[in-house]
Amino acid sequence: MNLYNSCINKILQSVNYMIENAFKKTTKCYNGIIVSNNNNNTWAVQYNGETHNITQYGDNTINVGDVVKVIVPQGNQALSWFFVPGSDTGGEGNDGVIFIPSVSEDGIISWTNNGGLNNPTEVNIKGPQGPKGDTGETGPKGDTGDTGPQGAQGNPGPAGQNGADATVNGVNTLTIEATGGLTGTQSGNTYSISGENLPYLKTTGGTLTGNLTGQHLTGTWLQSTAVYELSSSNFKGVCVFDGSGWVYYRTKEHFLADIGAATQDYVDSAVTNAGGVKKFSGILEPNSWTTSSGNYQYQAQINISDMTAE
Predict the structure, then answer these.
(1) Contact by Cβ (8 Å): 73, 30
(2) Coil, helix or strand for 90?
(3) In this structure, what are the phi and psi dihedrals at residue 61, rounded to the nearest 5 degrees?
(4) pTM higher than the cut 0.90
(5) How do strand 183-187 and strand 190-194 relate by DSSP bridges?
(6) Rounded to an integer, what distance in angstroms lies between the CA atom of residue 79 and that of residue 54?
């Protein structure tokens, strides 16, 4: 009998080990206290600070106040259950039924028993892989190291003397470094180097042979020596200056609005408001012409009955 009880304890220890170690990430195991019997193979068990109605597995007798192991697969209380272990005290009793758990590679726990009883329903205690955790917050920036004191600024050196004209004779190769560029001319055996007439537009003026690109040109007067008539119908507008001297353009519609000229829309609206264009007819009699006094102009009067002064 002692050997039998020892085997039972080893099996229970193995079950506890699987529950508390192999399945601790997806299945919870609690020590529960039997509170009351519901008389329908379920018991009111208090664990984790709450009381739940849980199904019993195993035929051993339990009583109110007994401590049992409660299994909660995947945190789902609806799937919770507890197994009733055998007692290691008392007299000679019948051999109990042994339930042996087995877990597959997919995390399915199943049971077998040696008493021909119904085994608990298979349960997936592995569960799906959880989502990737959020990236942790960036740690605080470390303290800036001490900066050594800056040395005192040295005294400026004396200004260099202006360069003087120089004559170099008897050399085949002469290398001169010049930031602004140099130009040269050959006259007989003499080659003259100069910083004048460089291919750059001077600030004092000159002739521009290429295009300028960029943002703004600021000055007092803008003159164009190339004047052309715009013969294309692709008319954009007339150049005007604003109060700050910037050049813009205004279209002919802008100018008509500036001088208050009548637009086509204004004329159409006026005709509509006057009731539209009216047409009258009359008869010009041959003998109705008369000569104006003092000149040779002729005039005639036509009487139209339905035409008024308006």
Answers:
(1) no
(2) coil
(3) -80, 135
(4) no
(5) antiparallel
(6) 9
